[in-house]
Amino acid sequence: MNVINKFLSGCVDDTISDVNISVNENDAHKINNMFASFNKSRPSLRILPKYRRNQIWTVKSQYVDFEGELQNSKHKTMVLLISDPEELGDDVSFVRVCPLSPFTDMASPNDVLCNDAGLVGFPFIVETWNEQPMLTEILEKYVVDYSCEIVESNENLSDDQQAFREIEISNARFLNQSIIAYTNEMERADNFSFSVDFVSDSKVRTIHMPKLNVQSPTLIPLKGHAEYATAARSGNILTDNDCIEIDSVDVPFHIEVRKKNNEYILTIIPKVDVKLSSNGKVFDCRSNDERIVYSGLKQGLYDIETPLTSKKITIRLK
Question: Which residues contact 142 (CB under 8 A, 6 or more apart)?
């Protein structure tokens, strides 16, 4: 197998693919040497620009999808946005993208090829034959503006080029899984009032609050990592004063989440040194001697940082 295809095949997550090809040390060394001279750092922006067509972004290597599953990529990914964002729901949007590949040796005569290493740090192919939809929330860092003409054409590919494209399309499932999970979750969302995905130390718990103000809300079967809120087990009618409670041995405080008037309220008990942020925006809070309260939150992903633990804490309100 071509060394590039061999390398990329090893990037497929074994849990979702039958591909399991080892890459020896010499192969990896050859791949690394191909791009060592293009190791250029890009300046980082304090305020990210708005998503729009003809931008290149990096993609998060790990994200929690809308079904509460942790998705991991075994290599860094850059994409070119080929559409402006479109709304899927409240505070949820998607774009169509083409991944970028540094493996220019695999380019066909009709591929969009950029030989300017100054743009992203290395020459690249725009994989126009690998167009994918993805949620904007898994975009990570803006890199540069870049425009190109995308033209569909029939072409004769070598066996290595054909295999390269098949592998890259397979690896791109990491991107479109964000859309698939959102669609699946929206089909189930009517069964719940609201839900929380809680992620700590790469472990995910999904907690659902059944319908509020209903005498006997329907409790549908849940996946293994999912559970119903403790309040749902009381047998009482649930109201917007009831909350999803989160306790974990990895987190040195108690978390409560409520939903009132289509907004979320996050409470942390006791009062400790914490910071709540989303996509670089830090949220203000109210506090007293006993607790910290963040109100007016929308659905989405939030990071909780505290000097009390080195472990990353992420929650999704949905």
Answer: 45, 48, 49, 55, 56, 57
Peptide bond into 270 cis (omega under 30): yes
Residue whose C-alpha is closest to residue 204's, from 80, 44, 314, 302: 314
Q: Residue 275: what residue type? A: K
Q: Where are the alpha helices (DSSP H) in the chain?
A: 3-9, 25-35, 159-171, 173-188
Gap between the terminal Cα atoms of the chain: 44
Give the global pTM: 0.81
Q: Compute the distance between CA of residue 249 and CA of residue 232 in angstroms, rounded to an integer.
A: 22
Cβ atoms of 212 and 240 within 8 Å: the answer is: yes
Residue whose tokens read 């009517």: 190
Question: For 73, phi and psi rounded to 5 degrees?
Answer: -110, 140
Cβ atoms 317, 302 nearer than 8 A: yes
Burial (CB count within 10 angstroms: exposed 0-12, middle 13-18, buried 19+), residue 98: buried
CA torsion through residues 297, 303, 306, 312, sign: positive
Residue given tokens 């000097």 in the structure block: 307
Closest CA to 87 of 123, 135, 124: 135
Strands 70-72 and 62-64: antiparallel
CA distance linking residue 80 with residue 78, whole number of Å: 7
DSSP 261: T
pLDDT digits (tens, 9 = 90+) for 75-117: 889 999 999 999 998 889 999 999 999 999 999 999 999 999 9
pLDDT (tens digit, 9 = 90+) per residue, 157-207? 999 999 999 999 999 999 999 999 999 999 999 999 999 999 998 889 999
- What is the reported pLDDT for 47? 61
Of 61, 8, 73, 62, the C-alpha closest to 34 is 8
